[in-house]
Design goal:
Helix content is about 65%, strand content about 0%. The chain has one domain (about 10-240). The chain has helices spanning about 10-20, 25-35, 40-50, 55-60, 65-70, 70-75, 85-95, 100-105, 115-125, 125-135, 140-155, 155-175, 175-190, 200-205, 210-215, 235-240. The chain starts with 9 loop residues before the first helix and ends with a helix. By secondary structure, the chain is mainly alpha-helical. It is globular, with a radius of gyration of 17 Å.
Length: about 240
């Protein structure tokens, strides 16, 4: 394994953006953009995690959230109105697997530092949970809004770049005002929310969905409506990994 360098590579990112615009199904190019522009976002995120009380517990325990999310029998045993049941219903309705992003991210460079690897893995595997907490769907505009939320939480420039290009594409279909209002709101919600990487998700899964959102300070979205913008699902699913 190799250590991911905190170096911004704009030319590499622009090549990937052009490739992605020509063929939205090029999931590998999504990862190229994120890796090329991430810079030190991962290192800064880990530093913050180490300074958070819950973050210290998570790093000591190293329990991967995907292990819980894979356990559908456990999720089904949770209360009917819980975050965990809402997540399970979402995954079954959309015919998704908790391992979907694991498979999509195969072949990426990984960090040899176990704490850094844990932080990155958790961010990838929480993506669909963030859909439930934010209320954004898997339509293309919903993916764009959840990425704006994610950018506010992680400050990953690669995600920010994808959002910027996504707004331009969305504006062609739903108009600039609607696209911008929805994405800007996603960003503001991400800024106002608790820092999601340092949360006890196993406990949150058992809470009623509304209570979990309240605990995380995630207010309802006012400017999001599911959109018919056409973008390949495997690409949009991978954007926040």
């Amino acid at each position: 394994m190799t250590v991911v360098q905190a170096r911004v590579q704009p030319r590499r990112a622009m090549r990937a953006i052009r490739n992605l615009m020509q063929d939205p199904e090029r999931t590998d190019q999504v990862f190229e953009i994120i890796d090329a522009l991430a810079g030190d976002a991962g290192q800064r995120g880990l530093a913050r995690l180490r300074n958070e009380p819950m973050g210290k517990r998570l790093l000591a325990d190293k329990h991967l959230i995907i292990e819980t999310l894979r356990d559908r029998a456990y999720l089904r045993s949770l209360p009917a109105e819980s975050l965990g049941r809402a997540y399970l219903a979402f995954m079954e309705r959309e015919d998704l697997s908790a391992d979907g992003l694991v498979d999509a991210s195969a072949g990426r460079q990984v960090d040899e530092d176990p704490d850094q690897r844990f932080y990155g893995t958790q961010l990838r595997d929480m993506h669909d949970l963030w859909h439930i907490v934010t209320g954004y769907g898997r339509d293309s505009f919903g993916e764009l809004c959840v990425l704006a939320f994610t950018y506010a939480q992680t400050r990953n420039r690669g995600i920010g770049a994808i959002v910027a290009f996504g707004v331009r594409n969305a504006a062609r279909v739903i108009g600039f005002r609607a696209a911008w209002r929805g994405v800007a709101e996603g960003y503001r919600r991400g800024r106002a929310a608790a820092w999601l990487p340092a949360q006890d998700w196993r406990s949150l899964l058992a809470l009623p969905l509304d209570a979990a959102r309240q605990a995380l300070n995630v207010a309802p979205a006012q400017h999001y409506q599911p959109s018919a913008i056409t973008v390949a699902n495997d690409t949009t699913e991978a954007l926040a990994a």
